[in-house]
Amino acid sequence: MWGPVELVGIIAGPVFLLFLIIITVFLVINYHQRVYHNRQRLDMEDPSCEMCLSKDKTLQDLVYDLSTSGSGSGLPLFVQRTVARTIVLQEIIGKGRFGEVWRGRWRGGDVAVKIFSSREERSWFREAEIYQTVMLRHENILGFIAADNKDNGTWTQLWLVSDYHEHGSLFDYLNRYTVTIEGMIKLALSAASGLAHLHMEIVGTQGKPGIAHRDLKSKNILVKKNGMCAIADLGLAVRHDAVTDTIDIAPNQRVGTKRYMAPEVLDETLNMKHFDSFKCADIYALGLVYWEIARRCNSGGVHEEYQLPYYDLVPSDPSIEEMRKVVCDQKLRPNIPNWWQSYEALRVMGKMMRECWYANGAARLTALRIKKTLSQLSVQEDVKI
């Protein structure tokens, strides 16, 4: 038989041991929580912390930070998820097949907010994904800030927040204003620079895939306050992985705007396994955009009224068949006026357009070649870029 002292020892020993284990577990958990909270606090106090926004940073400060970070486009994802709550929508500035575009106020500056309907979730996700490609940020590509969603009580709105440009699209701009030779060169060169950067592949761990736009047109290019272009609307873009030689594309051959479709897209002969084919189709469209710009160039008091490409050959909303007949069968292209020959800048522009419009995509100029030609022209014409 156990005596009272032994019984107390037998019972108290395991209880004491259990108590020690509980205390130890509690202390370990408490320690880890303190470390975690301290690390969070240090991150919040660290001015270089990418995961936070100090309250006194203006929109201009943030855009500058994004431009010099060298990383992907847009704010850190942690911050993007809080953006929609703090933007005040001001006015509607555009509508498209996806939804609406608003001007909003955020951190003391104007931003553009593209609001997709919930049925356009795939388009919203795709455009946000393309904009966040590493090393995409460039002065001639629309500056992406954030992608977020906002529940308005009835349905979920999908937001894509970007830089705001008060001139609006190149289409709007050319409808309102004529341009000088200097203005024409600035628009054309900046558009080529943006497209060259989009098309370029940078190989390496922090590399950038080649990207083809697939819906380049004057309505998808914005005009900045300094008279330069910023390429926008990347929702239909395709990316090329140089390492695996694969193309990230939805299995749909015909996308984009019919009026700007290259011959090989209209007649379905585009080689979808070859990334250069997509770049060549972009160049054809760029040539049409150049035609729109050059027509509005006021030289010697002469200029043309604004028109869309092929305005005199197809209806206002042409079908694929109508475009194919004009572009592929009749091999027609927009008219280049004879008087352009009297001005070196317009002569060069006209020559470039023809070299963008070849029926054979492989014979067309590259964006880089166009950029170099226009850079030389800007030096000749003493254009301040």
TrEMBL record:
The keyword Secreted does not apply. It is a single-pass type I membrane protein. PROSITE patterns: GS, PROTEIN_KINASE_ATP, PROTEIN_KINASE_DOM, PROTEIN_KINASE_ST. The chain crosses the membrane at residues 6-31. CDD domains: STKc_TGFbR1_ACVR1b_ACVR1c. It is found in: Membrane. Residues 57-86 form the GS domain. InterPro entries: GS_dom (IPR003605), Kinase-like_dom_sf (IPR011009), Prot_kinase_dom (IPR000719), Protein_kinase_ATP_BS (IPR017441), Ser/Thr_kinase_AS (IPR008271), TGFB_receptor (IPR000333). Keywords: ATP-binding, Kinase, Manganese, Membrane, Nucleotide-binding, Receptor, Serine/threonine-protein kinase, Signal, Transferase, Transmembrane, Transmembrane helix. It holds the Pfam family TGF_beta_GS. It comes from the Eukaryota. Residues 87-377 form the Protein kinase domain. It is an enzyme of class 2 (transferase). SMART domains: GS, S_TKc. ATP binds at residue 114. Its EC number is 2.7.11.30. Belongs to the protein kinase superfamily. TKL Ser/Thr protein kinase family. TGFB receptor subfamily. This is receptor protein serine/threonine kinase. It comes from Echinops telfairi (Lesser hedgehog tenrec).
